[in-house]
Write a structure and sequence with these properties.
This protein is mainly alpha-helical and about 70 residues long. The protein contains four helices and three strands. A hairpin with a 6-residue loop joins strand 2 and strand 3. This is Helix-turn-helix domain-containing protein.
């Protein structure tokens, strides 16, 4: 799946900056929950798991996606 398509960027540009839970993060990225879980395990991906619950900051995800596009 192309993470640099306009759909993930459009989804990341709206809504609350803090995303709690895999479902919210997956929805913002335009990915499935399973794919987001696998992505979160990769080094350098700004998806965190403090106290067992996944967390991400929309602006960090956006910056990370943009860095992957270039």
């Amino acid at each position: 799946m192309d993470l640099t398509s306009t759909t993930p960027f459009d989804a990341l540009s709206t809504g609350a900056d803090k995303l709690w839970g895999l479902r919210a993060i997956a929805q913002a990225l335009g990915l499935s929950v399973d794919t987001t879980r696998r992505l979160a395990r990769k080094p350098g991906v700004p998806i965190y798991q403090p106290a067992g619950r996944y967390f991400a900051v929309r602006s960090e995800l956006n910056a990370w996606l943009r860095s992957k596009a270039g």
